[in-house]
Amino acid sequence: MGETSNIEWCDSSHNFWYGCKKVSQGCAHCYAEREMTKFGRDFKAITRAKGFDKPLSWKEPAKVFVNSWSDFFIEEADPWRAEAWDIIRRTPHLTYQILTKRPENILDRLPKDWGTGWPNVWLGVSAEDQENADKRIQQLLEIPAAIRFVSAEPLLGPIWFEQSIYMAERLPESEGWGLDWIIVGGESGPNCRPMDLAWARSIRDECKEAGVTFFMKQMGGWPNKLGNIPEDLMIRQFPVLRKVEASKDWRSNDQR
User: Fold this and answer.
1) CATH classification at residue 25
2) Number of domains the chain is built from
3) 242 assigned to some structural domain
4) Which residues have CB under 8 Å from 79's CB, separation 6+?
């Protein structure tokens, strides 16, 4: 198996490329930048990873977080993305969790046979506050996917998800719209910004009412300044995969 991850909602992580560029306040204390700097890498340089095709050698099923040191949909990685999609296609026993802060780039960078989503790919967006949640989630909802999720980490303010998560109830299940999973976490690392427990509890309650799976990742703090997760928030659920079908006719433009 690949690199074991300390991220609670996945089994492993894999980087097809390294490096990123900051796009919002959630990036201010980027853990990837901190880790890359620690290992002597230039965070601002987008480079192809040496172990690009390692997943082809992994035999056991696993949830794999994609590009913990980058963004899968960053523009500078366009030359390598088709090859990355091919590896993902050839390893259906691996579940790839792709999280982005660039949902505006997703549509034009999906493979031609995406259909209503590949069963082994979960698409998600990061949303640290209401402004970014409103913008990024709406763009995510326009993309068909087997699982659609949000990582509200670092949670820097209250987020009201009603418009996004209740949409799943208003539309036919077969269309696969709406959010399936919401992850919540406080910021970690030096100079971390505090998370109000009321924000996390509000999201938990919305998820419960709408039947959306909820995952409380961490309180944040450095180290653990905010303490352990309260019992009422210690909920770690995973979404159930809906049926998806691939279709070569889903879009007419060529894969990048």
Assistant:
1) 3.20.20
2) 1
3) no
4) none
On whether residue 112 sits in a domain, the answer given is yes
Residue-range definition of the domain harbouring residue 90: 3-233
Per-residue burial over 94-124, b if 16 or more Cβ lie within 10 Å, else e, is bbbbbbbbbbebbeebbbbebbbbbbbbbbb
The values of phi and psi at residue 241, to 5°, are: -65, 130
- Is residue 43 in a domain? yes
Question: Does residue 250 sit within a domain?
Answer: no
Query: What does each of the 256 residues of the chain score in pLDDT, given as a tens digit?
Result: 456 667 888 899 999 999 999 999 989 888 888 999 999 999 899 999 999 999 999 999 999 999 999 999 999 999 999 999 999 999 999 999 999 999 999 999 999 999 989 999 999 999 999 999 999 999 999 899 999 999 999 999 999 998 677 655 544 443 445 899 999 999 988 889 999 999 999 999 999 988 899 999 999 886 555 568 999 999 999 998 765 544 443 343 333 3
How many residues appear in the chain?
256
Q: CA 61 to CA 91: how far, in whole Å? A: 9
